[in-house]
Write a structure and sequence with these properties.
Layout (H helix, E strand, L loop, with lengths): L9 H28 L4 H26 L2 E3 L6 H14 L5 E5 L6 E4 L7 E5 H6 L2 H16 L2 H30 L5 H42 L2 H15 L4 H7 L16 H5 L6 H17 L1
Parallel strand pairs: 2-4
Antiparallel strand pairs: 1-2, 3-4
Helix pairs in contact: 1-6, 1-7, 2-6, 3-5, 5-7, 5-8, 6-7, 7-8, 7-11, 8-11
Length: about 300
């Protein structure tokens, strides 16, 4: 088991275990329902499910990094960013990840990877241009906390079911109707399969969103305790959130699909229902937690 100096979070561990159990149970029920409804397509369903799972687990980090425009950089190309990563890794006693920069004015950062051995941490040019070194350290510590707690891998697997539900439904319906288009049950299958798929997607979506909001608070806490400067992380959060609001909406919409990976959401709703579906807790909640940590460290 990999050891590091990031503060352990039993609440996060418990939520990850419960989420993975429920997602796994939902996955089994979903595949079972499709096998029952589309008997003639069961070989195709099982093969596609297996291939998609392997692709999602082994290649999702590379796909995400490529989609977000991450370009790996050397210490000579980005000495300041590498220096910050080196300091955080030394503090956390963890292997240094690959370091990348994304050419985007949206100030943000993210980390991907199944484990500490194949991690990539990336900052955008907009973030590097706007943050002070101590603020950048807080952001990088936040991102590496996700890797140390393994919640990046859990979110990758958990989000897989929603993708699988849509793909298998299309393939299963196509295969089922190709085999039995004149069957009297075809109309019933056409109703039930999309309905089952929609229910599975909705449940998996809500489970991953609840876990995502908690893991952001956990990463803030771990980063603040590791660096000993929660005020720097709070300053970075405030600055990034304020600057994101000034970015053209068109640019933010291009970044929005990757909100779950980012340090701060590209777009977030203000309504209560929107917050329920958000990948991140509110800025106020994050700053309030950092304020409590500052008071705790002062008492010590």
């Amino acid at each position: 088991m990999n050891r590091n100096r990031f503060a352990a979070d039993r609440g996060l561990t418990t939520r990850m275990v419960v989420t993975m159990f429920l997602i796994g149970l939902l996955y089994v029920v979903f595949v079972g329902a499709l096998l029952a409804l589309l008997r003639g397509s069961w070989p195709m369903i099982l093969v596609i499910a297996g291939l998609l799972f392997v692709a999602q687990f082994w290649f999702s980090d590379r796909i995400a990094a490529f989609s977000m425009g991450a370009r790996e950089v050397t210490p000579e190309e980005a000495p300041e960013l590498h220096g910050v990563v080196d300091r955080i890794c030394a503090l956390a006693d963890m292997p240094k990840p690959r370091v990348a920069i994304a050419d985007s004015d949206v100030p943000n950062a993210f980390a991907t990877g199944r484990n500490q051995k194949n991690t990539l941490v990336c900052a955008t040019t907009g973030l590097l241009r706007r943050l002070e070194p101590d603020e950048l350290e807080g952001v990088i510590a936040h991102e590496l906390s996700h890797v140390a707690h393994k919640d990046v891998a859990v979110m990758t697997i958990a989000s897989f079911l929603g993708i699988l539900a849509g793909v298998i439904t299309r393939i299963g319906l196509w295969g089922g109707f190709r085999r039995g288009g004149r069957d009297a049950n075809a109309a019933m299958i056409a109703i039930l399969v999309p309905l089952v798929s929609a229910v599975v997607y909705a449940i998996s979506f809500l489970l991953t969103r609840m876990l995502s909001r908690y893991r952001e608070l956990s990463a803030d806490r771990s980063a603040a305790l590791l660096t000993g400067r929660p005020s720097s992380l709070a300053s970075a959060l405030t600055k990034v959130s304020g600057q994101i609001a000034r970015i053209p909406t068109e640019d933010l919409r291009r970044s929005q699909p990757f909100n779950a990976f980012y340090f701060a959401p590209a777009l977030s709703g203000g309504a209560s229902f929107s917050r329920l579906l958000s990948t991140h807790p509110t800025l106020e909640a994050r700053l309030e937690q950092l304020g409590r940590i500052t008071a705790e460290l002062d008492r010590r």
